[in-house]
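Inputs:
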Amino acid sequence: MPKVTLTNLRKSYGRNEVVHGVSLTIEHGEFIVLLGPSGCGKSTLLRMVAGLEGITAGEIAIGPTVVNKLEPRERGCAMVFQNYALYPHMTVRQNIGYSLKVAGMSRAERTVKVEEVAGTLGLSDFLDRKPSQLSGGQRQRVAMGRAMIREPKIFLYDEPLSNLDAQLRVAMRVEIRKLHQRLGTTTLFVTHDQVEAMTLADRIVIMNKGNIEQVGKPAEVYHRPATTYVARFIGNPGMNLLPAVADPGTGIVRLADGQVLAYDKSRWRDIAPGEITVGFRAEVARLAPGGFSARYDFAEELGSAQLLHGTVAGKSVTVQSVGNTGLRPGDPLPFAIAPHELHLFAASGQRFAEQGRVETPARSFTPAPAPTYLPVA
Amino acid sequence: MIERTPLLDLFTHLLLLASFVALLIPFWIVFVAASHDFHTVNQVPMPLWPGDSFFENMAVAWERGNFGRVMLNSLIVAGGVTLGKIVLAALSAFSIVYFKYRLRMVMFWLIFITLMLPLEVRIVPTYAVAADALRPFQSMIDLFGIGINLPEWNLLNSYSGLILPLVATATGTFLYRQFFLTVPDELAEAAKMDGAGAVRFFLEVLLPLSRTNMAALATIMFVWSWNQYLWPLLVVTDHQNFATATMQLQKLIPGPLFGEPPVWNIAMAANLIVLAPPVLVTILLQRWFVRGLMVTEK
């Protein structure tokens, strides 16, 4: 199976450019998720690969073939649409088999293939129903069956799960992952849901305003976000980001309110003194009296933990706590962050270069420390 | 929603009932008149219960009006107009909605303008064209001073002359355009991904989806073209072969000027004959008709 190469791809509507020169190589069999907020150009990119949108500049190649001028049917892609786009007047059987009918396959052959595909998707009992008689999840499966039956070189998913309710979404996510494991077809999956992206992707492509911000494995974009945009977008909640002034001599950053945080000097060697952005994840903060402190605002209950929202130097921060803190709004919220858990970004939003541990930090399997209960003030 | 307005309900139902009766009275009178013999129908006041000469009157009317022939003519014309309209409307709307080309909006407005110029308004030029269908082209050629003479193509006294001018109007195109606009774009894209070209998409996806639409258009167009009176009267001079049912009906209505006997029983029987086909078509297609004019299921 071929790899897909996008080279300096651009798309304009009139004078309005929405994709600004995107380059990306997708290896054979890879599951790539295009992630970004609405309007970032991710769907446009997918539709350009599908052949539903023209290409303003640049090149798309599937294997050795440049497909810029090829019609959708000649590209060997199959697409699953957000609202399923099933033919309302056809039964499930006809919907799944339509592309084969167009291709001129005989009725007998078609029946065999449709039943095979329907079997793998658990649709065998619904073959003679119309789409209007199916539930959302079943319709989604029919849409997938319609894509599968063509044995495409590339699967394209355009936000396929966003019309489903939360439980079904999780279930379909698992099914899509299983399907990919079984078929091994190169897949391009567009979503705005970072949980979907993290759980499904071999590699995530994070897009912002028509540009690629970062391409990386899910753990990589989570642990080493290349820009403040990625840091904020990935993770739930996103990374806490605070403006600070760096002092590379002593290895500390100073926040606007005078509080300081120490960072790992051996790792961040190229920090210039001056304005930077410092970031940390909510779950790495350890609640501990003394040292760093925020003003407590409110808490969100997650069941397994609580998210404590507070304010530091005029910016809101979120830290995770395992137990009930008994804090009241306005109380001080003291916490500590280990130096190696700090992420440093230049004022431009780019992550500073790091030495040493370039690989993804391994998660420790040591049990988490006992929750720190704060004395009630 | 729960509403408790018994008095209003009673009032509206009475009003509906009264309107319904008022609507049916003329039909009842036509039927009663058609069922009496010549003497009874001319009594003053005319009886309001049916007599026993219904079938006799119908037979006389059918014979005298040459209805065997003219009903066939009307069926051909109404059927031709209906079919032509549906094909033309679906194709033109498909072109306007699904293809991007230069002059698309110009085409759209050209079609739109025909809504404002019904046949009755442009009847003289339309007649001139029907008399020689190639004449507009001949005029254009003459304008450039080229000495080519196109042959004369006369549509008078022919089915095409009766049908074609009635086909070329915009109502159907609009009905179809509105319907095509409600079809989600993804459907067209899915068809493209499935490898279906434009013609296939039109025939296998759009047309089946627009069945109710088609039934609605067929009903409206059949009734409308069946009832056409002015245009056939102009185009047809060969009444023996090309008269339509509505034209023929007029001849059976006794006129006071010529001292004809007031054979209202025969005239009313003929009326019922001419009335029957559009009523039947409406009843048969009514279920689809109503659905087609409402928003279609997705």
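The first helix of chain B runs from residue 6 to 33. Flag for discussion at group meeting.
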